[in-house]
Write a structure and sequence with these properties.
The chain is an alpha/beta fold and about 240 residues long. The protein is built from eight helices and nine strands. The structure holds uridine-5'-diphosphate.
């Protein structure tokens, strides 16, 4: 029921690693199905959902660059990895009864339709889940930046950054038993405290556009739904 949602349109950023589950590499089917169930709960609330997915479970440009590859070439490989993840995610969403559309930032039209902003907006209004593939389409950027960019473009009310940890902590909760979760903090506080919420480009874009970010765990059952309902789950970074 749409009345219980605090947001009408969201941009969900999933890292490629979120799809690995306990595997060392690639896409774990059971894990992707679990994530899709979380997304389906939110779709049932009537919320318009756009997703940006990373590619780190398959390929990261920095790793290729460090191994001696041309960095831009390695980044294009990374972008192609996000296309694979996007196809897997959209497929799992369709199997779960959702309607999904993948749109790519790089031309690859026999596989995925190109990103066209008005079309993306139309799909969202039709209740389809839109998966933005290939990041920003440019090397030297990340899918976090793609999430900020697409989030701003489609007028999402919030970027939901799914991580393994259920928010931003005062210290590493694995190392420090006294670490506490920030329920919310401003962009300026996050900078002053040197809290790495997203990479600097993505963070700056969200801050400039006054696009709030919520950091939460996609592996905590029902967390995405609680976030969308506006409950105290994860950490809100506000302008
Ligand atoms: N990438 C890129 N431009 C973009 C987005 C991604 O070149 O706009 C490449 C880059 O090489 C990156 C890889 O795609 O390492 C996978 O994306 P990312 O590292 O953001 O994935 P995640 O860490 O979220 O799994």
């Amino acid at each position: 029921n749409a009345n219980s949602a605090a947001y009408q349109r969201i941009l969900l950023k999933l890292s490629g690693e979120a799809l690995m589950g306990d595997d060392a590499f690639g896409i774990n089917r059971a894990t992707i199905e679990r994530i899709v169930q979380e997304i389906a709960q939110v779709a049932r609330m009537g919320v318009q959902i756009a997703v940006v997915i990373g590619g780190g479970n398959i390929f990261r440009g920095v790793a290729g660059g460090a191994a001696g590859m041309d960095r831009a070439t390695a980044d294009y490989m990374g972008m192609l990895a996000t296309v694979m993840n996007s196809l897997a995610l959209a497929d799992a969403m369709e199997k779960a009864g959702l309607t999904a559309r993948v749109m790519s930032a790089i031309g690859i039209e026999q596989v995925v339709e190109p990103y066209v902003r008005p079309k993306a907006l139309q799909y969202l209004e039709e209740g389809k889940v839109v998966v933005f593939a290939a990041g920003t389409g440019n090397p030297f950027f990340t899918t976090d930046t793609a999430a900020a960019l697409r989030g701003a473009e489609i007028g999402a009310q919030i970027v939901l950054k799914a991580t393994k940890v259920d928010g931003v902590y005062t210290a590493d909760p694995k190392k420090d038993a006294n670490a506490t979760r920030y329920s919310q903090l401003s962009f300026d506080e996050a900078i002053a405290k040197s809290l790495g919420i997203m990479d600097a480009t993505a963070f700056a874009l969200c801050r400039d556009q006054k696009l709030p970010i919520k950091v939460f765990s996609i592996f905590k059952s029902g967390a995405l739904e609680r976030v969308v309902a506006g409950q105290d789950e994860g950490t809100l970074v506000y302008a």
